[in-house]
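Morning run. Coffee first, then this:
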Amino acid sequence: MWNRAILHADINHCYAQIEEVRNSKLAKVPMAVGGHEESRHGIILAKNDLAKKYRIKTGESLREAYKKCPHLTIVHPDYDLYLSISEQVKDIYRRYSDQVEAFGLDEAWIDVTHSQTLFGDPIKIARKIRMEVYRELGLTISIGISFNKVFAKIASDMDKHHGVTVITSENYQERLWCLPIEAMFYVGRATAVKLRARGIGTIRQLANTQKLYLKSFLGKPGEWIWEFANGFDDSEVAKSQQLPMIKSVGNSITALHDLETLEELKMVFRVLSESVAARLRQLDKKGSVVSIYLRTNEFDRSSRQIKSDYLIDTSDAIMECVDRLLHAHLSLKSDGTFETAYRSIGVAVSKLQKDEHKIQLSLFENENRTIHNRDLEETIEKIREKYGSDKIKRCIMIKDEKLTGFDPKNDHVIHPVGFFGYSDSSHKMG
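And here it is:
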C-alpha cells in the first residue's frame, strides 16, 4: 500500500476528442478546434492525432495551420458541451475519492491514498477510471501516478497511448531526471532559455544545481522548480467541494493584426479590461494590483504590474492603471510606432478581496464617479448579455471594429487557476 498516492488524469486533446465522439467522421480527417479563419485570435485550441502528424501546434494561428495542412477541418468550439463533458468525467473520478482537484478543463488531480482499502492499489484504480471514462463517455485519458502532484502531472504526459505511467520515490531519478528541462512543471519557454544559457538542460541538472543560484536569476520560481525536481512537493489535493481560492482574474488574446501603435494597444486592452471587470463583479471581488502581459510578433514576452491606491472592479479603474504602465514602460519610435509590434496581450487584477465594505477611495478619486461607472458598466453588461456583445460599444472601439470586435466573454482566454492558486495563462512559467 502506498503511503501517498496521487493520480493526475488528463483528457487527451480534450476539445478535439469530444468533437470526434460527437461526430465520428471527424476522427478520419485532420481536424482541429479553433476560431474563425478571418481573425488572428482564431487559433488552434486542440487537434486530433491526424492533424498532429502535420505538426500542427496548439496556440498557432489558423493561417499557420492551413499552410501545413490545407485540407485541415476546423470545428468551432462548443464550450458549454466541453464543460458538461468535463464535469461528467470528474464525476467518475469522484467515485474513487472525495479529493478531486480540477486543473483547467481537461486535467485533474485525484488523491487515492485512502481509497486503496476499498478499490485496490493506485494502478488498479487508474485502470478502472480509464475503463469507465471510455465505456461511459467514449473518451480516452492518460493518468500519471506518483507520490506527489508535480510528478503525477509529468507522468501523465509521458504516455498518451497506453495511458498509465507510474513514478515512485524509488525510480523518479531514473524515470524523470533524464528528461529535458522543458518537461518540468512550470518551466515555460522563456525560463527554459535562461536555464539552457547556463548549461542546465535536463531535470537532473536542475535538481543538482544550487537552489540559491536558481533564485538569483529566476527569483522565487527558481526555488519552486528546484523543489519540484527533487520531489519535495507536499501540496494537498483539494476536496471536490473545496473550490481553490481565486487570487487573480485575467484574460488575454492574440490580436487580429500586429499592434503597432499605442492607440491600437489601448483599444484591445479596453475590451479585455471590460471583461476582467465584469468577472470581478460576478465574483463579488475587488483587487489592488493590475498586471499587463505583452508578447511581440517575435514571441518575446514581458510583464509589468502596478498597485492601485484603492480597491477596483471597474474597467475605467483598470484602464487607468494600464495607461500608467504603458506610458512608463513602453517606448515609441519617432513615427509613433513601437520598435517591435505586439501580437498578444493580457491584463489581470490580483490581490483580491471580497467586496464587503464600501470602496476605499484615494484622495483623487470621486466617490460619485466610481459608483456611476460601476452602475453604467453593469447596465452595459446586461444589454450585451441580452442582445449581443457587438450591440453597444465605447467610441474608442469603433475606430477599428475588426480589431476590437471580439466577444470579451467568449473569444478571450480566461486564465485558469494555477498550481499555487492564482490565475495563470498557460500552466507554465515564462
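The first strand starts at residue 6 and ends at 11. Good start to the day.
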